[in-house]
Amino acid sequence: MSPFPKSMCTNTSNNQLMKSQFKNDAVGSFRRVHLVVVCLALLVVSCVPTVLQKTVNRHVPTAFRNATDTVNSAAMNWREYYRDPNLVTLIDSALARNQELNIVMQEIDIAQNEVLARSGEYLPFVNLRAGGGVDKSASFTRNGAIEEGLEIKPGERFPKPLPDVGLSATVQWEVDIWNRLRNATKSAGLRYLASTEGARYVVTNLVSEIAGSYYELLALDNLLEAVNSNISILKNALTIVEQQKIAARTTELAVRRFEAEVLKNESHRYEIQQRITETENRINFLVGRYPQRLERTSSGFFAINLDSVKTGVPSQLLLNRPDVRQSEQELKAAELDIDVARARFYPSLSILGGIGYQAFNPQFLFTTPESMMYNLAGELLTPVVNRRGITAALNTSNAKQIQAAYNYERTLLTSYIEVANRIAKVSNLQNSLSLKTRQVAALTESVDIAGTLFTSARADYMEVLLTQRDALEAKMELIDTKVEQLKASIELYRALGGGWR
Questions:
Q1: Residue 477, burial from CB neighbour count under 10 angstroms (0-12, 13-18, 19+)
Q2: Which position has the higher pLDDT, 156 or 416?
Q3: What are the C-alpha distances in Å from 78 to residues 81, 121, 171, 208, 500?
Q4: pTM for the structure as a whole
Q5: Which one, 202, 297, 310, 473, has the greatest CB density within 10 A?
Q6: How far lies 82's CA from each of 215, 304, 309, in Å?
Q7: Which residues contact 336 (CB under 8 A, 6 or more apart)?
């Protein structure tokens, strides 16, 4: 026999049955909610717009025309390639003081800070809060009426106004289910790498520009020397013509023609001096300092020979050219940006929580558990209606990926064409320099012959003038060809990706 009355047994059974029914209803409700959430998530994911990314063409020819070297001079340090100590000093100063390069270096710091900011987004945010205040509720309100009827303890009511002090820590964390935050961090990291490659590209251009301007300055010095030498020859010839006029062996016309030629060359000398000043100031600007005279050794200009540049194979441009590597990193970042934009269509899960103490009197603040408070909540958020903003962001990311792909292909094509052009230019200028050297030697001899014939009255003054003019022009062309040859070698070294190591 049961020790309990029958009615009590019946009530107990009914309670257990009700509890079981309530539990089953709760479980069923939870399952239905879970099913609705899953169906909603699948519906949202299935409605994500599709985008078509561009596949990049990384194919390059197997070799440059008329070049079969596998050794690549781009791996050579610029200090080994440029051995002039004055030029090395200028480049060293420019790498430390050039304003454009320093601006680009700040871009690297900005990109690095962006990586730090992105990497912190997928970690929990923990905030510590401390505060205090007072609050007075109106008596004829719900809160006021409640306070009127409550007592802290018998005979002691709540103070008016009611103080409030608290100390708590809160946690907020977005669970990176779809790797949206991590992909954003990777994208920022790739852009940081792209900025470092951009700085290296600036270095290669800076080094080549200073080297080209330096050799141009040496060429101008030699050009000025050639003009001064020609002026001296013409003045001597003018003296001879004036003496022959006195002896009635020539006319006033010859005197005036020689005098005009002297004046013409003296005028040209000032033009060259102006070009020297501007070239010096251009180098000083690249070095990041105010105008000053540059130390240099102009003698032996025609004996200057840069090392023969080894071109290697075109595929090495992918490794050596900073601009190609920069565009590649930007392309990878753009591809990740598409994944980041796509993940915004998916549900995001956020977890919120907090724990702390709160009381109306500081002496009760750390009374446990009466003054303790805590909370924990989860939030699932997904866009359903009016998704134009995130759709536009996805389409924009896709367009930027296509743009980055075309930019990569263009950069790779440009680098190959630059190298091919410089290879041909170096070869052609070398042949031209050899011929012009022989031309100058022949005209220099003809000047001496013309002077001897004129002195012995076997040639007229026009032959002397034209011969000297041709000799000077040929020497000026020789100097121009020499400096262009040096610049072509510099540009080939830069086009291969040399100068940043």
A1: middle
A2: 416
A3: 5, 42, 53, 10, 7
A4: 0.79
A5: 202
A6: 11, 11, 12
A7: 183, 184, 186, 187, 190
Residue 246 dihedral angles phi and psi, to the nearest 5°: -60, -35
362: cis peptide before it, omega within 30°? no
Tell me the C-alpha distance between 378 and 394, whole Å. Answer: 27
Is residue 69 scored above 90 in pLDDT? Answer: no
| Other C-beta atoms lying within 10 Å of the C-beta of residue 197 | 20
- What is the rounded distance in angstroms from the CA atom of residue 423 to the CA atom of residue 430? 11
Give me the domains of the chain, ranges plus CATH numbers.
53-122+194-345+388-495 (1.20.1600.10), 126-175+348-381 (2.20.200.10)
Strand pairing category for 372-381 and 348-359: antiparallel
Question: DSSP characters for 329-370?
Answer: HHHHHHHHHHHHHHHTTS-EEEEEEEEEEEESSGGGTT-TTT
Q: Which residues contact 160 (CB under 8 A, 6 or more apart)?
A: 136, 147
Residue 72: CA count within 13 A, CB half-sphere: 21
Kind and range of the H or E run holding 102: helix 99-121
Q: How far is CA 111 from the centre of its chain?
A: 10
Phi-psi region of 179 (alpha: psi -120 to 50; beta: other; left: phi over 0): left
Q: pLDDT by residue (tens digit) across 388-426?
A: 888 898 899 999 999 999 999 999 999 999 999 998 998
> How does residue 66 score in pLDDT terms, banded at 50, 70 and 90?
low
Q: Which two tokens stand for residue 428?
A: 């052609």
Round to whole Å and give the CA distance between 327 and 200.
13
